[in-house]
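Module 6 notes. Inverse folding takes a fixed backbone as the condition and produces residue identities as the prediction. Think of it as a translation problem where the source language is geometry and the target language is the twenty amino acids. Below is one complete input and output pair. Work through it position by position during the lab.
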């Protein structure tokens, strides 16, 4: 296999002034019938579940909208949920299907169909929990009065808190499937197939004639009427070149017991009846089916088992890309997928789509752990998928690949190799972009340890990871540790590349912004001046990278009170961004806002107003009126209008913010309370004291309840009420 060049992100910290940030979701007037893709199933493929389907229907109608279908792995929970959704789809106005792949919140937020249907997409730095809550509230509000079905497949105990945010009410049916009992939710226990159904399922997949008594004994005592086991062994017997009967199959399983103690225990799964030890004969199926002796099939199965589970399956063309199948080998690859499906090791939910059952994934990982050769194509693929070109890529577009990177790292847990550090690095940066600093820190610490071991502490690749871990520590407020790492990175870059190299300039910039956080503005200024000189020499004054350095240095000069010099640099940055991106690009809009902030400090409110109006128009054009970036520009412009005495204009903008927050977060969320406070301040200046008091009292109740009396927001709103009392008293004199 040809070794591909690994691309690791080295992230530069960009100091941008966004102002007070509110998280707003956009809303479309109508939501579609299918909010997500609904996994297809042929009803003819489901045997022995007619009574369970009727029972499920009745329970959903009477269960106050929330029902948990519980049972052991491989018993058919997802299959029955698919059957229900497909049979009754036309009786619901809206349907959605979400499979928990990581956490429930992440799986919901990352679903592209739900994002498009609701017009809500996660922004960089926005926590999963906040976006999940926003999506659930949008579902509740926008499907009001309509019958709706939400299926959450394979949820676990970690989802308990998230379940409290689900849409509810008499028109909502929410069906969960799980191996575990979760909270006090009403349970539909899915048991084993009855004997006649078990026989029918076996015969569906095995055409070889069997003795009735022997088949009964085999299904009852060996396979225990376990759905997945019946299908797998029926397919194995049907394709076996020598074996003809279940008696031979049972004898083989009896005489070929597993010797390794670790394999006797297998996998334990929780279900409604407690814990059960899964059948060791599933492990014996590797040898019995012959795939253990066919390396090309075994390798493919191990690669499939390293992917996140999916009820819909993955398109064969995507799998060929991810597994780096060469063009001339695609037919053989497709044949191998089909062979594994025919043998029962893969699912085929739809034509040319393949997946692996969670139970099979666990058994494959346990009995045949993947090797470096098995996983290297996936490591390379998802390292690249998680890579960001900072001159053109949007981090949000990379978020859906996070579960894939996590799944491959989980599969490679027992292995150590240099390329793993690069995947951890890029995945850690995307978690940072999401605001999951704790997760990012853990991954980048492991990546650093691996890089130091494989490359040494002064290698350029190690320096990249030092820088990236430092940025996470900076975000967590551990400036001292961040500084130490960035000093190591800077020393490495100066040694390996020289002081004028672009990589060294990035290290100067990153260290400078940590020094700024530590209050060492003089030190930060010196490093950013070095970075600016390097960028101007290497890229020229109009390059986007140089413009970023201008913005960063301007932020330090602004902190030092040198507004005139900061203004000059930001004017250069504006000129560069307008030339490179155009006046309506989001990057240019951010620079407009940064320059406006300096102009406000200089008292030039008129010029600041003009720039913020440009930024607002750009945001409305690029993102729409209710997007979070647009909401930021409303807030920034409102603050300038207030300073100019245009209280009416400021009021209109802040009313938009309040309306958006109430719609997306509800009336008792701290974000909404901040908007109440901001609007109240403008109303006080307009002498609309009654409405201002009402808003401040609302904000006070939220802050005290959610944040406590010692939080700065709580103290500020109490101070605002005291000021209001004084103004009302003066007005009555």
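Target side of the pair, the amino acids:
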């Amino acid at each position: 296999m040809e070794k591909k060049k690994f691309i690791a992100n080295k992230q530069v910290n960009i100091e941008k002034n966004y102002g007070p940030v509110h998280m707003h979701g956009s809303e479309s007037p109508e939501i579609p019938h299918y909010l997500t893709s609904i996994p297809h199933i042929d009803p003819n493929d489901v045997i022995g579940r007619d009574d369970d389907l009727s029972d499920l229907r009745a329970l959903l109608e009477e269960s106050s909208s929330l029902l948990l279908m519980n049972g052991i792995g491989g018993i058919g929970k997802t299959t029955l949920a698919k059957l229900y959704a497909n049979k009754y789809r036309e009786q619901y106005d809206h349907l959605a299907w979400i499979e928990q792949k990581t956490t429930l919140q992440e799986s919901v937020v990352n679903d592209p169909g739900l994002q498009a249907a609701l017009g809500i997409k996660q922004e960089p730095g926005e926590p999963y929990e906040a976006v999940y809550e926003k999506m659930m509230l949008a579902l509740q509000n926008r499907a009001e009065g309509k019958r709706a079905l939400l299926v959450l497949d394979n949820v676990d105990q970690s989802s308990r808190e998230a379940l409290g945010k689900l849409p509810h009410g008499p028109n909502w049916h929410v069906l969960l499937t799980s191996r575990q009992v979760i909270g006090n939710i009403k349970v539909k226990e899915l048991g084993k197939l009855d004997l006649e159904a078990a026989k029918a399922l076996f015969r569906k997949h095995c055409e070889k004639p069997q003795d009735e008594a022997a088949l009964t004994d085999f299904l009852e005592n060996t396979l225990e009427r376990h759905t997945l086991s019946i299908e797998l062994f029926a397919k194995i017997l049907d394709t076996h070149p020598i074996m003809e009967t279940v008696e031979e199959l049972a004898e083989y399983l009896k005489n070929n017991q597993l010797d390794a103690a670790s394999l006797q225990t297998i996998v334990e799964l929780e279900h409604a009846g407690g814990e059960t030890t899964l059948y060791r004969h599933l492990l014996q199926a590797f040898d019995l089916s012959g795939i253990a002796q066919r390396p090309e099939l075994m390798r493919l199965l191990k690669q499939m088992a390293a992917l996140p589970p999916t009820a819909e399956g993955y398109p064969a063309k995507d799998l060929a890309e991810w597994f780096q199948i060469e063009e001339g080998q695609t037919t053989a690859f497709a044949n191998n997928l089909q062979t594994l499906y025919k043998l029962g090791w893969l699912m085929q939910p739809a034509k040319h789509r393949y997946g692996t059952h969670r139970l099979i994934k666990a058994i494959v990982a346990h009995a045949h752990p993947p090797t470096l050769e098995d996983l290297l194509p996936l490591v390379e693929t998802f390292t690249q998928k998680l890579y960001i070109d900072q001159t053109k890529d949007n981090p949000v577009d990379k978020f859906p690949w996070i579960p894939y990177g996590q799944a491959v790292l989980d599969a490679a847990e027992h292995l150590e190799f240099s390329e793993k550090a690069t995947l951890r690095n890029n995945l850690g940066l995307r978690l940072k972009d999401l605001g999951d600093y704790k997760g990012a820190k853990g991954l980048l610490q492991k990546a650093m340890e691996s890089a130091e071991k494989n490359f040494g502490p002064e290698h350029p690749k190690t320096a990249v990871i030092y820088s990236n871990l430092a940025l996470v520590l900076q975000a967590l407020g551990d400036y001292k540790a961040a500084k130490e790492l960035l000093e190591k990175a800077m020393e490495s870059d100066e040694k390996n590349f020289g002081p004028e190299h672009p990589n060294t300039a990035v290290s100067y910039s990153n260290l400078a912004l940590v020094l700024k956080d530590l209050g060492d503005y003089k030190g930060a200024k010196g490093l950013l001046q070095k970075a600016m000189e390097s960028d101007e020499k290497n890229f020229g004054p109009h390059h986007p990278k140089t413009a970023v350095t201008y913005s960063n240095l301007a932020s330090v000069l602004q902190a030092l009170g040198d507004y005139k010099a900061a203004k000059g640099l930001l004017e250069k940055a504006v000129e560069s961004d307008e030339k490179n991106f155009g006046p309506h690009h989001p990057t240019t809009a951010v620079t407009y806002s940064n320059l406006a902030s300096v102009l406000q400090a200089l008292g030039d409110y008129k010029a600041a107003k003009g720039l913020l109006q440009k930024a607002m128009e750009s945001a409305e054009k690029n993102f729409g009126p209710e997007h979070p970036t647009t909401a930021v520009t409303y807030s920034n412009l409102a603050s300038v209008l207030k300073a100019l005495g245009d209280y009416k204009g400021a009021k209109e903008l802040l009313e938009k913010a309040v309306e958006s927050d109430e719609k997306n977060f509800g009336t008792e969320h701290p974000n909404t309370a901040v908007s109440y406070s901001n609007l109240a301040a403008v109303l006080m200046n307009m002498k609309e004291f009654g409405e201002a008091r009402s808003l401040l009292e609302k904000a006070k109740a939220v802050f005290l309840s959610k944040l406590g009396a010692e939080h700065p927001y709580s103290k500020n709103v109490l101070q605002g009420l005291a000021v209001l009392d004084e103004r009302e008293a003066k007005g009555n004199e």
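Reference fact for the lab report: The CA atoms of residues 613 and 637 lie 7 Å apart.
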